Amino acid sequence: MPDEPSVPRDRDARPSLNEVLALRAERMATMRQVITDLTDEQLAGMTEPVAEPGYPEPESFPVRRCLQVILNEEWSHRLYAERDLDVLDARSSQVRR
Question: Does 38 score more than 90 pLDDT?
């Protein structure tokens, strides 16, 4: 992805595991609160287009679709992690033999 002024990125950042886990917990807490507070009417609604430059282009999206994308990505990342941990576990078991 080319550099985009509206997307912060620090190529030299080297956060510790604790920093990453703290940020992850914060993001998960935010999502829990959003889902808890979401009404049926809001879920059936559309997002407001963002006028600032960046991605995606200013457009309105179904809230339900946005939530599905987030949940599907979260599920996929879990599956990738479990797959990778299984590979590491299998390699570790082979080394012990």
Answer: yes
pTM of the model: 0.70
Q: What is the pLDDT of residue 1?
A: 65
Distance, in Å, from the CA atom of 90 to the CA atom of 92, rounded to the nearest integer, reads 5
Q: Domains of the chain: which residue ranges?
A: 17-96
The DSSP call for residue 76 is H
Q: What is the mean pLDDT of residues 52-60?
A: 80
Distance separating the N- and C-terminal Cα atoms of the chain: 43
Could you give the CA distance from residue 63 to residue 87 in angstroms, rounded to a whole number?
A: 37
Sign of CA dihedral 13, 14, 17, 19: negative
Residues 6 or more apart whose CB falls under 8 angstroms from that of 58 comprise 49, 50, 51
Q: Which amino acid is at 53?
A: P
